[in-house]
Amino acid sequence: MQEWLTQTAADLGRGIAAGEICPMALTQTYLDAIDAHPHRDRIYTIVTHDRALAEANAAKSRAEQGQRLSLVDGVPISWKDLFDSAGAVTEAGSNLLANRVPDQDAQVLQAATAMGAVCLGKTHMSELAFSGLGLNPVKATPPCIHDPEAAPGGSSSGAAASVAFGLAACALGSDTGGSVRIPSAWNDLVGLKTTSGRVSLEGVVPLCLKFDTIGPLARSVEDAAIYLGLIEGTTGADLRGAKLAGRRFADLRTVAQEDIAPEISGAHEDALNRLRAAGAEIVPLEVPSLAEAMDLSAVLFTSEAYGLWKDVIEAAPHLMFPEILDRFRSGAGFSGPDYVAAWAKLEQFRMEWDLATAGFDGVLCPTSPILPPNVARLNSDHDYYVRSNLMALRNTRIGNLMGLCGLSLPTGTPSCGLQILGQPDCEEALLRIGVTVEQALA
Predict the structure, then answer these.
(1) 156, 157, 179, 303: which one is catalytic?
(2) What pLDDT is recorded for position 108?
(3) Cα-Cα-Cα-Cα dihedral of 23, 234, 435, 164, to 10°?
(4) Is 155 a catalytic residue?
(5) Which position among 131, 155, 303, 408 bears the catalytic label?
(6) CA-CA distance, 133 to 92, in Å (whole number)?
(7) Position 243 in a domain
(8) Active-site residue, selected from the candidate residues 60, 70, 78, 80
(9) Domain range spanning residue 32?
(10) Is 200 a residue of the active site?
């Protein structure tokens, strides 16, 4: 049974379908692993034993009657602590929301449950999702799979750790500037950022409503496709027959490959070489206006975040991690006209991006330009924290600013991810590309 803890969700689902795996035994195996894990309380905020076992028992009955609801009916997964779940504390990693208990599930959790998902519980995250590092001295900082002294990536930090440490078959997280893709990259997982507006945010604690997105952190592209479908109430993208040969990719040079760590540079070049060997064409790409678009990040993200949260924050600022508090408050320095002007500029830059990338099947770059930074130094060195946070988010933020969908894949070099950026609302096409890239990088 211990081998179940490292299998993909799809393989577990196929095992249930074949009668080789009992959903009750599978769920109990995961619950036992969580309860025995030395970092349980740094990964999970709450483990919903009763709910998980009740849902697993229902999945067992459906399997016995030949009435399964989806391929992964009966497979246990985790949820980031910003998805409302009925009767369970949901605090979005912040003491500002201490003891907040919703009375109903978020819409995506309802949809996944209706397709047979088993909810193991809620996972730790950066405070109010406003950091790409995963550091949270207020609640807990989950471990990174490769280095117990390094940050796990955020804000979906516990989500990544739950899958990487074998404590969930898949995790659902959110991505506003990189919060699914960074922890996926640093923990060697597949992370999918969906297009803004595609997946319901009802019942999800917000950060920036124009940029907030929801996506899975998974062990395979197939799993990511399945769980995107699950939270939308569908069977997900059909990945059969996808081919890499003949695909044309852009290797983004502007911004994305400046000041990158040597290990990441090497992993990126090796990944590109493997794609070329599999028959893909890769073309260097410069998008000059991207640098100016990136400069809009401060006004767009911090203005919206502080606008949504200022009353709650200023009622009890002492409850917050000072670095996160400072980042929120920086949004107070921009005016309404600043915000409107920034959006007008961004729309122009998005059109320029669309023109520059129209001839490609995807745009490639390192998911993060840096490796996971040291937690102790992040806690003691303000400049190191700020620099690390901005650098961690830099490459992923391109996808959010340009309004794209994005996929991070492990390259085989620890904590070095390859990001593929796709066109808006083209997740199915991106996932078909992703499964072929995954095969080439395996």
Answers:
(1) 179
(2) 98
(3) -40
(4) yes
(5) 155
(6) 15
(7) no
(8) 80
(9) 2-232
(10) no
